[in-house]
Amino acid sequence: MGKLQSDFRRELAARGVSRREFMGFCSAMAVAFGLPKGATAMIAEAIENNPKPTLVWLNYQDCAGNTESFLRASKPTAAEVILDLISIDYHEVIMAAAGHQAEANLRAVVENQKGKYIAVVEGSIPTGANGAYCTVGGRAAIDIAREVCGNAAATIAAGTCATFGGIPAASPNPTGALGVGDAVPGIKKLINLSACPMNAQNMTATLVYYLTYGDWPALDKLNRPLFAYGKSIHDACERRSHYNSGQFVEQWGDEAHREGQCLYKMGCKGPVTFQNCPNVGWNDNTSWPIACGHGCIGCAEPDFWDKMTPFYAHIPGFPGFGKGSNIDKVGFWATIGVTTAFAGHTLVHLGKKRMQSGKDTPADPNVNPKGGEA
Amino acid sequence: MTHIVVDPVTRIEGHLRIEAEVDGGKVANAWSSSTMFRGIEIILQGRDPRDAWAFTQRICGVCTTVHAIASIRAVEDAIGAKPPPNARLLRNLIIAAQCIQDHVIHFYHLHALDWVDIVSALEADPKATSDLAMSISDWGKSSATYFKGIQDRVKSLVERGQLGPFANAYWGHPAYKLPPEANLMAVAHYLEALDWQREFIKMHAILGGKNPHLQSFLVGGMATPVDPNHQASLNIHTIAQFKKLIAGAQEFVSKVYIPDLLAVASFYKDWAGIGAGTGNYMVFGEYPLSDEADPEKFLPSGIIRNRDLSKVEDFDPSKITEAIKHSWYEYDGGDDQTLHPSQGQTKPTYTGPEPPYERLNTDGKYSWLKSPRYDGVPMEVGPLARMLVAYARGHEQVKGLVDAVLGKLEVGPAALFSTLGRVAARGIETKILVDKIGDFTDELAANMGKGELRIHDNSKWEPASWPKDSMGAGFHEAPRGSLSHWVHVKDGKIARYQCVVPSTWNAGPRDEGETPGPYEAALLGTPIANPEQPIEILRTVHSFDPCMACGVHVVDTGGREVTRVKVR
To answer: To pair with B274 at 20 to 30 A between CA atoms, which of A48, A143, A168, B502?
Structure first.
């Protein structure tokens, strides 16, 4: 047993985490990545033997929802070990130091661990008012982000605000807010964990992947890990059979609602949203929004505050909708319909973004929603 | 005179900057500034009011339910929707669970490190720590071996030089007064609370699909079906889950949080004489107990002025105004004007120094927060205000607990008007709520039993059923205090939206008459042992539990049309 490994085992023991719980965690991670059975041992070995990488977490135009989500990383308690495996040297919401001392911690990481640390960004970055819409220690967010993300080994955008601009960038985007990929072009490695907030499970899985393979998971064209964003909510939904049978909730609290039938007519955006909510659930897989009785609002998709609203309007109507029609075809046409509508909107929105964010900020060529491929 | 800047103020939600002048070892002047702005109310213009809760909810992911609750209440008020009894109970459950979880996180993860020196815990004797723990509580995890394990863990962090989030703080500062054993006990409970909050918040996952950002709110009710005979509904199994989680919370709060609070407070009684602030307290009231138009509330509303507990005024919403003389906004009528939120008007206009900057111009505008006032005076809101109003109104449980805590600490009621008073009031409220939340569960179960399954007022769902032009207000007691949302609905769309938020009440800048806000007032006279390490400022500011993303809001009266693709 190597030194790090025995240190790690001691640490687990001190935290009251049994070997069995730890292996259970690694196995859950292997399942999350869709890896074969033997991968569990490999993940465990990698976690035990690699030194703790440093992580800094930057909060900008945010609500701290992604931080809170991260703090809910679920049992087995070994998930919490991830917090220990990574040395979180800067995180304004949890760190003990404040003011100059806090800033010094961040500076030390950027200077001493150049190109080695992981940066996490939560919240969008405003480009209006010369950066005055968000300052930390008197410095504009965009200034700090350029320096910190520019020198990081990788940057993880946590949540839809950091990923795609999110709610501050919703029309009419009063502050010229951008996601980190748009605000700081040319980041070495960008991983987008969209959703509002991001699911803690996807953050821990991404970090475990890195600890295990020394590399980052495969990404879709929006830089989101395929293991978490490769499938639509609709395809994995536990209520899919009701959709296929034409059984729909018509009113909140009606018999169909109480029985758990399909929420499509109540505005569910599951067919055009790509995330693994139905598989991993929320809060230790206790529930997830559709299981709870409310439709998906599409929070993992770019510009969802504009494209998925009004939330209670069902995605476009089509002839012959209802019981007896070919629902799979119906679902297909619905998706095509909404995709077309979005594509039109995207052009309008891109133009607007360009205007608001100033000349030197390139528009993201990937803003087209993932739904476009459905 | 030394000028201090604390920015970022950490262990809070959002972006807060404190500037202060220290003279003769005490704060002589203080300025509170919020340095982040998003403009969510501008974004709401022209949208469907039934969507507003999801937008405003994103104001804050820490108190993740509060703006959703205030929003649906405001829109219901505007369109005349009447949520059925189950919706009231589900909301009460959500509100109480939020408050309980939020208060525990605040005490352990956001505030404790101002009072607890982690490094000092290394010197503790595990056996003596165990004795201390057992002398104040019969909580199970209290053996010497257990505390030794925690201590070893901290030791290994220090030895490896990987203190992570605990690095470079004010450890060893003379203002830390706890003996090493109390420090070690508190560190152990810091870690336990991290586990506990994750478990307890499953209440919200059951009631809202996920936390943060629950997704079961509806204008007119809730989206969580209630039916004892369906697996896809809240059913009798759910009631059992609630009971288990609530029992766990009662145990943790009674056996860990409250004993820790009393133990820590007993070493910091001098802080019962520091940080009082404005001395005015405001509460809107919360937990409606019936479905009538103006229901009795479990925690009552009221106004207390000048620390006078013998008189409680009734709250009058028409007396709220907002000033912007020192805020980065403009009013058409000039900077000295004040406006009621229903007439609120704001144009963001940044006039501060261009970043990067060293100092704000505090003679001019210096914050993204406005300055809300009640009847022209600043009001403190939050757990202390709620406990004071309930105490002064003779609320039985509150009175009993407040008196017990004061007795235990051997101080009088005047001690409540302080930094320590805020910390104590938060703990007392948590205990009151873990004992109350079970009643809402029982009532929900009783409704299921008698076939009362309604969760939503369907009659007001379609915009065609709404008035053409109407105003609404929604009031809520968030963990951090009194929150109000104001909405103008016209032709089925939002014409104006405004939030007046707890952290705006507490953290706002000076008003048009140069009267400081509650943070600014509370910091006056605070002793500062070392201006390079102003831990005392953090103590008082953290005692309010700042939530800055909540505090910053803006309204646009221009009625700007939102360009969006309609997917209908």
So the answer is: B502
A200-213 helix and A19-33 helix, angle to the nearest 10 degrees: 100
Q: Do A65 and B62 touch (CB under 8 A)?
A: yes
Q: What is the dihedral of CA B391, B395, B398, B404, to 10 degrees?
A: 80
Please check whether residue B25 lies inside any domain of the structure. yes
Q: Which of residues 105-124 of B touch A (CB under 8 A)?
A: 109, 113, 118
CA distance B78 to B90: 21
Looking at the 3D structure of chain B, how many domains does it have? Answer: 1
For the record, the structure tokens of B264 come out as 């820590």
Residues whose CB is less than 8 angstroms from the CB of residue A205 and which lie 6 or more positions away in sequence, other chains included:
A29, A32, A33, A217, A225, A227, A228
Chosen from B2, B35, B38 to mutate, greatest number of chain A CBs within 10 A: B38
CATH superfamily of the domain spanning A231-360: Cytochrome-c3 hydrogenase, C-terminal domain (4.10.480.10)
Q: Are B553 and B60 in contact (CB under 8 A)?
A: no
- Classify strands A125-126 and B469-478 as parallel, antiparallel or unpaired: unpaired
Contact B198 A282 (CB under 8 A): no
* Any A CB within 8 A of B38 CB: yes
Domain ranges of chain A: 52-229, 231-360
Three-state SS at B456 = strand
Question: DSSP alpha helices (H): ranges in B303-395?
Answer: 383-392
B296–A contact, CB cutoff 8 A: no
**Rounded distance between C-alpha atoms, residue A116 and residue B208, angstroms:** 39
Question: Where is B131: in which H helix or E strand?
Answer: helix B126-136
Instruction: Please indicate, yes or no, if residue B564 is contained in any of the structural domains.
Output: no
Whole-angstrom distance, CA of residue A363 vs CA of residue B395: 58
| Helix (H), strand (E) at residue B29 | strand B26-34
The CATH number covering residue B284 comes to 1.10.645.10
pTM for the structure as a whole:
0.91
B6 with A98: Cβ contact below 8 A: yes
Instruction: Enter the tokens of residue A284.
Output: 């230790």
Beta carbons of B43 and A305 less than 8 Å apart: yes
A270-A273-A274 Cα angle (round to 5): 120
Which residues numbered 340-359 in B keep a CB inside 8 Å of some CB on A?
348, 350, 352-358
**How far is the C-alpha of A80 from the C-alpha of B98, rounded, in Å?**
22
Residue B390 lies in a domain: yes
What backbone torsions phi and psi does residue B327 show, to the nearest 5 degrees? Answer: -110, 150
Domain of B377? 2-551
Q: Which superfamily, per CATH, for A52-229?
A: NADH:ubiquinone oxidoreductase-like, 20kDa subunit (3.40.50.700)
Q: Is residue B465 domain-resident?
A: yes
DSSP B263-289: HHHHH-GGGGGS--TT--EEE--EEE-
Buried b or exposed e, range B202-227, using 16+ CB within 10 angstroms? bbbbbbbbbbbbbbbbbbbbbbbbbb
Q: What is the pLDDT of residues B443-498, one digit of tens each?
A: 999 999 999 999 999 999 999 999 999 999 999 999 999 999 999 999 999 999 99
Q: Tokens 């000076």 belong to which residue? A: B510
Q: Tell me: the pLDDT tens digits for B379-433? A: 999 999 999 999 999 999 999 999 999 999 999 999 999 999 999 999 999 999 9
The CA distance from B267 to the nearest CA of chain A, in Å, is 21
Q: Quick one: closest CA in B to A318, which residue?
A: B568
What averages of pLDDT result for each successive group of 10 residues across chain A (374 residues)? Answer: 64 70 76 72 74 90 94 59 73 94 96 96 97 96 98 98 98 96 95 97 88 92 97 96 96 98 97 96 96 98 96 70 45 47 42 37 33 30
CA separation for the pair B409, B399 (Å, rounded): 16
Per-residue burial over B11-28, b = 16 or more CB atoms within 10 Å of its CB, e = otherwise: bbbbbbbbbbbbeeeebe
